[in-house]
Amino acid sequence: MTNTLFLPELREMLAEDNAAELSNFCTELHPARTAEFMEGLTAKEAWSVLQHAEMPLRVEIFGFFDEGKQIEVIETLQREEIADFIGHLPPDDRVDMLAEVRPWIVEELMPLIPSDERRDIQRLSAYPDDTAGAVMTTEFARLSEDLPISQAHKKIRQQTEELETIYYLYVVDDEDHLRGLLSFRQLVSAMGKPDTRIGELMERDLVTVNVADDQEEVADKVARYDLLAIPVVDDEHHMLGIITHDDVIDVVREEATEDAHRIAAVDPLDEGYLETGLMTLSWKRGIWLTILFFGALLTAAALANYESEIAKHAWLVLFVPLVISTGGNSGNQSATLIITALSTGDITLRDWGRVIRRELAMGLVLGGFLGAIGYFSALMIGHFSGWGVDLGPNYRTAGIIPVTLLLTVLCGTLLGSLLPLLFRRLGLDPAMMSSPFVAGLIDVLGIIIYMQVALSVLGG
Fold this sequence. Notes:
Blueprint: H1 3-15, H2 19-28, H3 31-37, H4 43-50, H5 55-63, H6 67-76, H7 79-86, H8 91-98, H9 103-109, H10 115-125, H11 132-135, E1 141-143, H12 149-159, E2 168-172, E3 178-183, H13 184-189, H14 198-201, E4 209-210, H15 215-225, E5 229-233, E6 239-244, H16 245-263, H17 278-304, H18 307-312, H19 320-344, H20 352-385, H21 400-425, H22 435-458
Parallel strand pairs: 1-2, 4-5
Antiparallel strand pairs: 2-3, 5-6
């Protein structure tokens, strides 16, 4: 049954105020499926359906609504009712959501949100975007290291309803300094020793992130240590919150999307493709296209500088697309490989020497192979063109092509690998050194190399 076909039945339940059926609808399916079946409902209709679910389930279903539907619900329904609901949302989710709501509506909502949750929203909103503080949730299981196992179970039961995850239990002192950690599995396994204190079981060598760390660094640590959640601390090691694996997945997707946009020479979109306005999308694409356009003009200028030589040896023009495309493609490959390796942590700036050696060797191998093909291709074109030995490429002049290809591919692999490393060294995103940008640089260099080699061989 498709989502669309189910909508009339769902609307009929609402019209008849069939509480039993609506309650079953909310509880019998996975929350994600429930949200999918509600896609065609208006904000008011969707909210009416949610009223037939208990608050924890209501929050979970709402979390699977697309962002547009969530914002519509927040902005169109009664402020008092929505403010109470916002107080039950996960701290990190409600901050992200309110950042997208129109400011004047947020101003109306904030005084109506319970004071503890309001302070939490204000605190999390103060952290810069793309930092650990902006991604973390402040709800986590807290225990004291002096607490015996027998009391720890009771303590956790009291906190369970408000927590996003209890797989990791964090041990803090009276001033909220992070002292250690134990898993819920360890706690259950120790039930046979009720007098054992938490401090005797907890792990003290912890992997943490600072509240100011970049979210990409957080994702790298979670992936490297295979964690379900990671604690966030300040400079004095106060426990501020945790970042769970589902939030890390969102970070990874966001960073991957940004990198993909930059590699394609598009300024990253703040919203989805279809949600981004035409003028905004035109600007984000046009600004880089303009830069690349002027880069292409440099290529034309480089060709114009050798106009007289090209006029004497017209066959050189035939191989211009071959030279610039081969150099650009090799540079694109190297740039993409290095940007990806930097993003995944496969290489660091300390590896620049190894990168240069590998790309130098790769440029020689690929340039030599493609140069050999280019040499025989030039001979074949010279043979079948009808130009003759004096006007077309011969055994000696056809050597211009392989030498040029070898040098151009070498140039492409070295530039494509070094420029992303340079950007990382300057503290910039390596993905800004996009493939089209690298290709534009190598196009100009390829023309210069080609014509200089031609002048040397042809004696111009």
